[in-house]
Structure formats: C-alpha cells, structure tokens
Amino acid sequence: MRIAVLANLKKDVPFDIEHPPDHDYWDDLDDPRTVRAVVRALRRKGHEAKYIAPRLNVIRRLLAYQPDLCFNFCEGHFGVSREAQIPAILDMLRLPYTGSGVLGMSLSHNKYMAKKVFHWVGLPTPDFMVVNSPDEIPNVEIDFPLFVKPTHEGTSIGINENALVQNYDCLVRQVKWAWNEVKAPILIEKYIEGREFTVSIMGDRVLPIIEIVSPTGYYSHGQKEDENSPVYRICPAKLSPEKRAEIEKTALGAMCALELQDFCRMDLRMDAEENIYILEVNPLPLLFPDPLQASYVFSSKVAGMTYTQMINNLIEVSAKRLGLKM
Fold first, then answer.
1. How far apart are CA 11 and CA 101, in angstroms?
2. Residue 81 lies in a domain
3. Is 235 in the same domain as 183?
4. I need a surface site. Which of 169, 212, 262, 301 has the fewest CB within 10 A?
C-alpha cells in the first residue's frame, strides 16, 4: 500500500506570540523520531510510506501523492477542533485514514462533552462541572476533594502539583491558574482516591492494562515531561480476572460511546470499594518508539508486539474496517 504519514512535529510549530516554540502549549506535538519510526515500520512490511507535513499546502501534497491510506496522528495547532481538522480534510478529499473521524475526535478532545456522553449512556465517570470564566466560579455542589484540569488539553497540560483541591478557596486559585495557562474552559470533577489505570485499545482488543503509580496520586504535566519523574508504571496491572474484565468492558464501552475507531488510550481510576470510573479518552495516543515513555507502546510490547508489528497491526485494523485490500 501507498501510505501517507501525517503528524504535527514540535519543530514545525507556527509563529504565535502567546505560544512561543518552547511553550507547554505545544507538548502534545510529536517528535521527529516518532515519524521516522512509523515510516520505517511501514517500509519494513513492504509498504510505500512517506511523511507529509500537515501545513497549509497539505491538500495539494496529498492529491499529488494519491495515498491508498493515510496514517493520521495529527494533534493540530489551534482551536478546540484541532484534532478533527485533518480528518475533516481527508473526508473532503475522500481519502481513507486510520483512527477516528471528526465526531470521535471532537467528542474525546472536549473532556466535558465526553463525560456528558458517558453519563448519558450509563458509563461510570466522576461527578463534574465546567467553568467558562475564571471570574464566574459558581458554588460547588460536588463534595471535596476536587480535581481541576482544562477541558480541551492533553499531555496533562494545565495540571500542576496544586490540581487536587480541598476547599473552595484553593479551587478558585487553581481554576484561575489553569485558565491563565490555557485561556479556555476548565473542568472540575470529583477526585477519586485510589488506583489509576491507563487502558490501550487496538481494534476491538484491549491490550494489557497499565497501572500508574504516582507519589502525588495523579499524573501532572511536569511529571509527564520529566524523564526522572518518580512516577512509574506496572504492566500488566495486578487485578483479579473479574476486575480486569470489568475494566476492559468499560473501556470498550467508552470507545464505542465516543464513536472512536481503530485505536485509543484512556485513563480510569478505581476507588477503595473497587468501583471503576472513566476519567478521559485520548484518540491519538503517543506512539514514540520507547515503551518507557509511551503507554500505548508499552502495552503493545507486553502484549508481545514489536514496534514494527504494532504499527502494521494498526494498519491492518484500519484497512479491515475500511474494506481496503492489503
């Protein structure tokens, strides 16, 4: 197959006064090593693969290349629709692509809307509310402690060591801090004391579950970006067969509810009574070729896959869904 690889690289960030190249805002974007690893993995399987940077000339370049399939893991640059922008373009060009479409990308990128969907379909998620202005923080009807995070960010952007709040005064300070970081709505949710898990899905297969162990009880942006962070992961997580099955069922239900396709990764927590709660879903998990840094790659490795096998398995999952011949 002729495959176009689409990804936003940190080295190609556009000029923006509010967000210089070294700003945390761009931490969702990919490392060139990820693109090189994906292209290499595809070529090893016999595919013709080429990286096409999703700049303003991306339509012309895609039409010139005429790919059989696009391997999309573009995060986008601006706007709440940024993860859905390339899928929208590919839909317009009638070019098939891996992963989720416009609706799935939009729902999952907006954590508030995703949680409303979970609530609507009966999936367990912590109680929540949203603040649309730092100057209008309403009285909270959810019991403390609470957790504060941006509605539209990934990579724990806008989450620091003060994200867990115990009272209203701390809540106000944290909401204002988070707002200043992202200039966007802030999600407030009930903090679930207990164990945290990250679950990766490939097609309809749940990969080995990872437990995230953090001294703070949660994963902050600083911890994710710090190579010497005290946070560590256990895979496969130590769970009873019954609880593992429950987590897998919940994760697959969340993927279906948000209309996600092919692959995703999600965060869940389990309280002292072993109740499971979905926190959020990432339709574009990090594919950096180091299992110590990328949870999706870590789970795939524990499942017995090499990086090359993982990438090509994703291609096969997408091709089957799309009815493409390999």
1. 26
2. yes
3. no
4. 169
Residues contacting 283, CB < 8 A, separation 6+:
83, 99, 100, 104, 105, 108, 109, 258, 260, 264
| Residue 250 lies in domain | 195-304
Taking each helix axis from N to C end, the angle separating 32-44 and 307-322, rounded to the nearest 10 degrees, works out to 70
Has residue 252 been placed in a domain?
yes
Could you tell me which residue, 139 or 247, shows the higher pLDDT?
Answer: 247
* Torsion of the alpha carbons at 209, 212, 213 and 216, rounded to the nearest 10: -150
DSSP annotation of 24: G
- Residues 39-86 have pLDDT tens digits of 999 999 999 999 999 988 999 999 999 999 999 999 877 778 889 999
The one-letter amino acid code at 207 reads L
Same domain for 199 and 179? no
Instruction: Report in angstroms the alpha-carbon separations of 299 from 156, 235, 275.
Output: 20, 7, 23
Instruction: Report residue 291 as tokens.
Output: 């299992």
Q: Residue 59 carries which side chain, given as an amino acid letter?
A: I
224 and 240 together in one domain: yes
For residue 308, CA distances in Å to 35, 46, 192 come to: 13, 12, 37
Residue-wise pLDDT for 280-322, tens only, equals 999 999 999 999 999 999 999 999 999 999 999 999 999 999 9
Q: What is the largest CA-CA distance in the chain?
A: 59
